[in-house]
What we know:
This protein is α+β, with helices and mostly antiparallel strands. It has a single domain (20-134), classed as Endonuclease, Chain A (3-Layer(aba) Sandwich). Helices cover 46% and strands 12% of the residues. It contains five helices and four strands. A hairpin with a 4-residue loop joins β2 and β3 (60-65).
Amino acid sequence: MADFVDKATRSRYMAAIKSRGNQSTEIKMARLLRESGLKGWRRHSPLPGTPDFCWPKYRIALFVDGCFWHGCPRCYKTPKSNVSFWQKKIESNRGRDRRVGGKLRRMGWTVIRVWECRIKFESTITRIELSMLKRGWNG
């Protein structure tokens, strides 16, 4: 599908996309956490990589990765225009994700990454609960 705006306008649109409060990721995850009864989480902790959610008491950091921006193996489709830019961009995001995860693990944190498309699955909450159990949570 051809783009209906020029490159400068498209660039402005893309730059305006917010990294916080995204309806498809963070808001859905916050709703799921509340519905499941998990407590003690905080949003946007000043840890490396600024996790979307964290449980400071259990040292668990949760990142909710957008399928497009982080290159979900199930959902991501490379845009048809400016292919080399997008390939570099997604690889850069993935590399940053790996570096941040490694840094947090070295600091003693458990890192959980959830794809946007997997938020609604029960297994997402199970993964978080299992990590909390390993860290002393008693449900």
